[in-house]
Amino acid sequence: MIGSGAGRAWADLGLGAKGLIVVALPLAILLSGIGALHLSGRAEAEAEARVRLTFAIQRDIHEVHALLAEAASGVRGYRLTGRRAFLEPYVKAEALLPQTLDRLRRTAQDPEIRQRLRRVDALVIQKRDGLAQLAAMPGAGTAAGIEAAEVANALVANKAVLDALRAEIDAMQRRERELLEQRQDQADSERRRTWTLTAVMAGIGLLGGLAAAQLLFTGIVRRVRGLERDAERLERGEPLTLADEAQDEIGRLARRLGQASDLLRSREAALREGEERYRRVIEGVRDYGIFALDIDGNVVSWNTGAERIKGWSADEILGRHFSTFYPPEAREETPARLLDTARREGRVEDEGWRVRRDGGRFWANVVITALHDEAGTLTGFSKVTRDVTERRLAEEALGHARAEAERASRAKSEFLSRMSHELRTPLTAILGFNQLLGMDREMLSEDQRHAVDQIAKAGGHLLAMIEEVLDIARIEAGGHALTLDLIEIDPLIEDVHDLIAPQVQAAGVEVRRSGDAAVRATADRRATIQILLNLVSNGLKYGSAGGVITLNVVDDRDGVRIEVIDEGSGVPPAMVDRLFTPFDRLDAERWSGVEGSGLGLALSRGLAQAQGGDLIYRARSDRPGAIFVLSLSAPQPSRQGVSP
Amino acid sequence: MKIVPEDTALKTARILAVDDEAANLSLVERAFRREGFGTVVTFLNGHDALVDFAASTPDLVLLDLMMPGVDGYELLESFRRLTPATEYLPILVLTADSTMNARLRALSLGANDLLLKPYDVGELLMRSWVLLDTRRRFLTVRG
To answer: Complex ipTM, two decimals?
Structure first.
């Protein structure tokens, strides 16, 4: 390059302008060469024309000289001989001389020649006049004295003119020879100049071509090659050289390529970083074996969790088929089936025994997911394995515990069935036969009838007691099925009222209802009625005859309560603690004279608690008497079966 | 004084009673004898009862549930298996097992009625009479 500034300017030129310059430079040199050659050729031709003109002038000068000489010689001959034939050259010269002189005047350019030519013109006229005088003199051939002197004078004069003429012509010829030499030299130098110019032009043309080629190479070809190399580097992911900073299209392309490369590298870096992070996460997971399979089921990646769970290191397992993890009995069928399902449905989950490297087994939860590329072609599978042996063992233990509980539950209900059977069966015959006896009372004596009645009464008591014992046992065994419903308290109390009305009437007692109305609770209706019947019946037994039993309903923030209040003597404070103990009748017979099994309150409390409530005792504060408080669960929106 | 209505048509009814307690069988026998209807055939074990059942179809079965050997539940199943679907053969279960489970199981296996021991003898006779009467009407309709 000529200089860095010019080089820079050249580089910054657009490709169109560059092309124009590269094409125009040799063309301009060629055209100027042709022009120079043309001018040089013309100069040469002019020089040659001048040489030819000089030759013509010389010829004409000779011709003038020859014509005059022949004319003089002819006139002399005529004078000597008197024959007219000798005048022929003179006549010819008279005809030709004016033409030749005229031609000379036209063609001669040299000032010296022209000057001489004017003198020659004058001399020629003198000569022609002299010759004409001579030719016109009479007596030719008959020379007379006078006449001869005249002729001699004329001849001398003619000769002097001819000499002067000859001297002029000689000078002219000398001049013309000089001029010829000069002009031939000139023509030769013009020819040499043309040749030199041609050679120089050829050289410059060659150099121009070379310069154009150089410009083409440096301005375009070399830089395009550089771009190509950068493109190859880009392809290989190597950094670009980015040497081209010119402002033309190639420079811009190079910079675009550089930007694309930067973008690509930053994207690649981000992608690599993401992949690396992802890989580290996957590899770092210890609790899950996460690995990849190719489409045939061979292991192609392996993480820490997989190594921990299965015992194989990545080096040992990569490339092996994943059926290695299955116990021999499942190795043939299960892996193929799982891959098949994953292929078909995209995903498959399985649980089963798997084998560790050391041969130990573990219970695995496995999820196999089919992996597809963007075109939807299956590329392999991911497999996530969890060691859930502990969970499996816990489930098994739970299963055993459940089975055990179920067995215990069955044993309990079997015990209840058997107890019921064993207690009731003997009574069947006792009460049955007694009833048969009683059917034919008229055939019995008074004593026998009394005995039959006693048996029936005691048997009935025993049966009632057996019922209560069985109920308590049932509650304790959890076999008493209660159904918790949202129940209305008012109709329930009315039912209790109706059911116990005969005994109430017989005892001459009044049962009153007091407290909150339209109260609802969540309870088992049957069990609640049973409890209230029991409590009212107790009130009838232990309350004062002709007194009042009050059923008071309370619904406040402490919940729903039904209080059964009597006007008896209440329970002696020392015995309150034993009130709900089965079979403990608190020496009731002794202080109240009332019979009972001692199970009613225990059963009632059991039923109350079984439905989420309770039953407690409280002494009346206003006067002697007992208050039994049955608390119930507050209303709950949904009904549910409860098996306490 | 009789408990059930006078009904000569039921005098010849064949009643099969199964119980492992001899006293209970005796009670049943006497009760029916006193009322004067039906012929009670008694068995102390399930196996014998099954053999008899297969040999001669009864009009009513009085069945205890808890028995050693072939128990009442198995007998219920066998009786139902041996009885054609078009037949009406009433089975009254008499059991001392008061658990709900026992009652539901007996009824689901095909018992027509159930009395809890100790039962009222009059109720036993009335329920037996109702079942026999239904069977008699069934046989009349069938022809």
So the answer is: 0.87
